[in-house]
Amino acid sequence: MTPPARRELAAAVIGAAVAGGLALSAGGQAWVTVTVSRPAPLPPSTEALTGTTLAPLVPAAGLLLLAAAVALVAVRGAGRAVVGLLAAAAGGLLGWSGLRPLLTDVATAAADAVAAGPSGGALTTEVHAAWPVLAVVAGVLAVLAGLLTVVRGRTWPGMGRRYERQGGTGGSPRERTDEDRAVDAWRALDRGEDPTEERDGDRPGRDDGGSSAKRP
Question: Domain limits at 124?
Answer without folding.
Answer: 3-158+176-192
